[in-house]
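Subject: Interface between my chains keeps coming out wrong

I've been trying for a while to get a sensible model of this assembly. When I model each chain on its own everything looks fine, but I need the whole thing in one frame so I can look at the contacts. Pasting all components below, labels as-is. Any help appreciated, I'm running out of ideas.
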Amino acid sequence: MAESITLLDLSRQIKNAIAQGLPSTYWVRAEISEGRQNANGHYYCKFIEKNEAGLDVASASGVIWAGTFMGIKARFERETGQAFTAGIKVLVNVKVNFHERYGLSLVVNAIDPSYTLGDMVRVRKMILARLEKEGIARQNQLIPLPRPLLRIAIITSPTAAGYGDFCNHLEESGAGFRFVTKLFPAVMQGNGVETSIIDALRQISMEYQNWDAVAIIRGGGAVSDFNGFETYPLAAAVASFKLPVITGIGHERDETVLDLVANIRCKTPTAVADFLVAGAQRELDALNVLSTRMHRASINVLAVWKERFAAYSSRLAPAFSNSLAVWKERFAALSTRLVPTFTNALEVRKTMLNNLLLRIPGAVHSVCLREDSRRQKLAMRMEMLAKSATRQQSSELVRKTDRLARATQLLLRAERLRIDTASKSIRLAGPERVFSLGFSLTTVNGKAVRDASQLKTGDVITTQFANGQAQSRVENINVNKEQ
Amino acid sequence: MDTTQLTYAQAMEELEAIVERVERNEMDIDDLTERLKRAQQLVKFCRERLLKTETEVKNILSSDDLQAPNTNDQPF
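Reply #2:
Try treating it as a single job with all components included. I did that and got this:
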């Protein structure tokens, strides 16, 4: 029989070899793939390392004794805001331990949370860089929020406290806003996060006309597991989603990559509800402000028109009465001028007539005189002609004398006719006819009165009519200055 | 002049434009009533889009689903 040792002996040798060969502690970078705390408070997990293709290339059991676990977990979660759970990458200080019964394990003494934080940032940066390169990083943020923002598709876990909080908050502080919500259930913890949220988004996109926005919400305390949210496929799905996405996934400390690509980022589901209510309230306020302004402006416009009307109407009556007064005045001026004008015209006619009457006797006399002298001249010429004729041939003389006599007679007859005609026309212009037309001749001291200024008060004037005369005393004299 | 084809944002925009015109007193007095009516219509439309009407709320509250369950319907 070949030389052999017991398993326990071998195990002890391995234990010694490890204790001698790996005596110190080591800072190890690894990912926690499984982990659980047992009843005694010890934390047992599995550390792994993956290559770039995502395949495990190393694996080791790990343990954090209850005495150190509380402190490590608290510090880690305080500093990273990330739950100490499977899926995270950690930098841990370990001592390699070999137990005869349980085998190899890495006993964790301490943890450096900044490594995990850095790793999360690095992962986030990588995802963002890829989204930027693909041109979709800001795509969701560029979608303008619809107005009003009331129909919200909610992606969350139906059992999560956050959903109830969200709905209650929306109802209670909503003040009767017409919010419409529908739950699209998804796993919000652990490994299923990515695929189930992407599934929910796909369902919403099939009825996207029904929704104004998508809210991805999750309740939870200060510390939760965000690993599922930090993946490229999920970030890409949110960034390129056709409706604006609002996040409220309860990360107090930091932002997940979803927060960075979402249209609106809130910290908690309640904050999302507050945001929505505030938005609706803003719309309502704006509407109220507009109606108040409309009301006030309408009243102002009316007042302005009223004022304008009042101003015009108060100016209207004076304007009318003014124009009336002007016309009255004009009329009065005209009427005072009317009587003198007529009187004057009458006086002028009277004077002309008087002048005419006075010239009549003289004219008649001169016509008579002229005719007489012509007749005498003719007679004298006739005598001379007769005398000269006697001196010529008697027969011829006689004949000529005859002709002369006949011509003379014709001439005389014509002259008589002219005188008759003239005296007839004189008679037509004679005083009898003028008197018969209603005019009368006024004399004072036997002289015709042609001008009112010839008279003085107290004069006795004689008015000559066709069939008589009347005497009267002058009481009042008005001389027209215009004449 | 109906509001059925309007979106909320269009209605708000139109309302704002009307209010501004009235405020600048660019409105003829003949147009004022028309515009006021239109503004009222728009306010009503927007308000209805934002708020549940009272009757609607009452209807929902009085619907059967929210009544206390009838014990006779219980199978046990």
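Reply #3:
Confirming on my end. The interface with chain B takes residues 146-148, 150, 176-178, 280, 283-284, 286-287, 290-291, 293-294, 297-298, 300-302, 304-305 of chain A (CB under 8 Å).
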